[in-house]
């Protein structure tokens, strides 16, 4: 097994270093102490964006939900996210087609697009104040991907019924002021403040009756009628089902042959002077295995992230922060030379990757009452939304064939 973050010793501080520009002085939702053993229909372990989405959806369906977090909800990886809420997946449609065939790959892409649409609708319906903005994306040529490769990807997306427009060098430069060989421009994505989004969802879940409790899950006993979860205190929680939403810290019994832990870095500039951002504030990401990505914020900053590598150790990750910050400033100036490079925020975070860019969602093999939602790369939040809908279906006893694409024990499509 590749190195992982240990379940017991990994605290939220190990999941990220530095500081991101999120939260805007808002306080975390209240959570109670566990003062007795309790029973619940669904226990969600982890109060980040994944757990909050799952809890909100189940509570809205009238399910009795309890969320536990061992620290402050939202202050794990969610607080380090750059929150580009894209339907385009880390693996291009062409790559995914190579792994699983066109029909399956196209269906995953369409479901991802539907997830962003669903999330947008949810934020609107609940009126969550989280700087949520519909955005288009620019997927720009970089590294090994040339204009012909991007054009092929565009044609494949068109065949899948996905929206988008191919831009050659001239079109990209004249319309967006970006000097790259080509790009695909696509509507249908969004950005947000991930911490306010997560907290808003958790608050809504609580208003609908979900309990939010400060406790550590230390052991899980999957029994025929319920799961008994031991905690760090004298009390246990008995649940008909458990949803594991513990982010990049996965319990040992969740085994995946295709998941690796890595690290990512990001910076946010000082607010730019008005008119100094690219025109539509598109989410920009590079079509390359090693890529940078950039977005703007509601208060006029530019965020650029990337430089991902396979560092797992949190102190080594944080030691690299000055060097990665310099590299990100350099990348920003190449991408958008007009930017004021003054950096207000820099941070790092643990990150996950899978061989096919897809998450791990579903029942844990051998533990039918324990569901898991893991393996999030650059589309973490889009996939967390999808997980909340899939796991609610599994809870209701319904499974669909397409869920298999996310199975926790699926083999690697790249293995010979
Ligand atoms: C630098 C960076 C940039 C990113 N950019 C993007 C992006 O642009 N778009 C995107 O969609 N995604 C992005 N991601 C990924 C995204 O942030 C993650 O997918 C997402 O935040 C994961 O949320 P989570 O709720 O699963 O995990 P977390 O936010 O880590 O929440 C897990 C919670 O579980 C709790 N916990 C753990 N173990 C226990 C236990 N035993 N008992 C009780 N509680 C426990 C923790 O305290 C924590 O609060 C990025 C990530 C990083 C690091």
Describe this structure in words.
With 416 residues, the protein is α/β, with parallel strands linked by helices. The chain has a domain at 133-188 and 260-354: D-Amino Acid Oxidase, Chain A, domain 2 (2-Layer Sandwich). Helix content is 29%, strand content 29%. The protein has helices spanning 12-15, 49-60, 93-100, 102-126, 147-159, 169-176, 194-207, 314-319, 321-335, 380-395, and strands at 16-18, 32-33, 38-45, 65-69, 84-85, 133-141, 165-168, 182-191, 211-214, 217-222, 227-231, 236-244, 259-269, 283-287, 292-296, 302-309, 343-354, 360-364, 367-374. Strands 1, 5, 6, 7, 8, 13, 14, 15, 16 and 17 form a ten-stranded mixed β-sheet that branches. Strands 2, 3, 4, 9, 10, 11, 12, 18 and 19 form a nine-stranded mixed β-sheet that branches. Strand 14 and strand 15 (292-296) form a beta hairpin. Helix 2 (49-60) packs parallel to helix 10 and helix 3 (93-100) packs across helix 4. The longest helix is centred in the N-terminal third of the chain and has 25 residues, at 102-126. The chain is globular. The two termini are 18 Å apart. Flavin-adenine dinucleotide is lined by residues 12, 15, 45-51, 68-71, 73, 76-78, 80-85, 216-217, 245-247, 249, 264, 266, 305, 349, 351, 376, 378-382. Flavin-adenine dinucleotide binds next to helix 1, helix 2, strand 4, strand 5 and strand 13.
Please tell me what the overall shape is.
globular
- What is the rounded Rg? 21 Å
User: Low-confidence stretches at least 5 residues in length (pLDDT < 50)?
Assistant: none
Mean pLDDT: 94
Largest sheet: 10 strands, mixed
> How many strands in all?
19
Q: Would you identify the CATH H-level superfamily of one domain? A: D-Amino Acid Oxidase, subunit A, domain 2
Estimate the strand proportion. 25-35%
Instruction: Output the structural class.
Output: alpha/beta
- As for the CATH topology of one domain, it is D-Amino Acid Oxidase, Chain A, domain 2
Terminal-residue CA separation: 18 Å
Question: How many DSSP helices?
Answer: 10
